[in-house]
Amino acid sequence: MLQALWYIATVWLLIAVLHAFLQLFRPVSLSYRNFLNRHGLSVSLGSVRVYWTNYPQWVLRLGSVPGLRQWFDAGSVVGSVLLVASLPILAGLLIKSFTQPAEQQTLKPVIPGVTLPWSQMVNVGATVFVCAVVHELGHAVAAVKEQVRIDGYGVFVLLLYPGAYVDLHAEHMAVISAYRRLRIYCAGVWHNFILALLGLGLLVGMPHMMSPLFTTDSGIMVLNVNEESALHGSLPIGSHIQEINGCPVRSIVEFSGCLSRAYSVHTGHCLSLDCVQRRQRLQAAVDAKLGLALGSQQPQSQPQDCCPPSASDICFDYESTHMHQGAVCLNARNSTAGGICRSARHCLLYAEPDRREGGSGQYVCAKARLPSDSRLLRIKHTLGQDIMFVGNPFLIFHQVRVSSYTPRWSWVSVFNYLPIVLEITGSYLLSISSALCFFNAVPVYYLDGHWMLATLVEHFLPKYIPDQQSRNKLLHIILTSGTVLLFANALIAIIGAVR
Question: How far is Cα 252 from Cα 189, in angstroms, rounded to an integer?
Fold first, then answer.
């Protein structure tokens, strides 16, 4: 996190220094300033903007397309509904943020190197830019339809994130009716809403679009494993992941869900108490012989280390329904072959079969003793024996590239990444465009929600609250509430992400 921030700050500091040097260095300062003015460029610490005054003619032609009034009427309804719903939603999210773990929270900030790999920044940046352009295009086309002059438009980069904006003529906006202004203000939110629906449609329609070349009933296929991953070299490319700790994996959603469940719920494995006690007696005998061989001055092993250093053995804490508790050193592969359990009572179904085979019928739930963010996972796949993984389950999601699409013929494998690209495009369009749609509808100072709320107050409330000052007070109370709620949610989400 700190390294990423240092890198970003250094790049922008160098840009600012170069900008200042070119402005002050006499031999080039005049040419440089003319260049900036000619192209509408402005540079400041952390941002670069480009502004144009000659609006494209095709945008003006779009404003005369038949049916636009009904189109933007629908947008006004959607924008107004989102505006009203946004405050209860943000209040609910804020309350949940104090009761849920950070990894289960709804709002996920996009922080490079923390919540998003640097390798995905180009995809995210491009999607943000497309969504911002579509948003501002909505404002522009609605303004043309309502005969409001567009003074200019521009694009910018703020830190790492691109954006766009339009400059509407203030006097024209002031003289048109409140409802016509509402169409313009809601147009950006409306276009982001439609773009999010397109992303959802792409995700839903993918199996049908890809069905001539790919099948989706074979589970998820491994396309690539990051070289830094512990699974590199052990999880073969082209194999299909079938289970993670007994959790069936048949799609990307189930893959993510199984990893999330493995992290949030610390499960163990059902083992026979007879087997555990035999292993304890064997270990005690080995420890006794080792102690005699090394002499009495050899320090005894610490209680928390019930296993000697080993690549295959792990210390397990166990409990049974008969109050048997303790720790035992077990082979990770052998001990995870049994059923999954959260407590000893989940292992009762194994008792009767064990008695019929001459056993005691007592089973324990044994959980690997690991750091709080690590889990012992058993990954079942099609091209080899099960893989044992110890670590944070979320690392697998970020370090293993998988696809739910399996080629029908060998030559189709050349296009293995096509479904991935389309899925990423659809998911980013859905998540980013819906986020822009929602957050711009929130009544926050200087966002679209500010002007949408002001227009609604002007249009609907004079009959109920005739006094202008009272309406203004109500407007600022709502705007202040929305601003506080949005920033509180954002701050908590950021703190939870960087912890």
Answer: 30
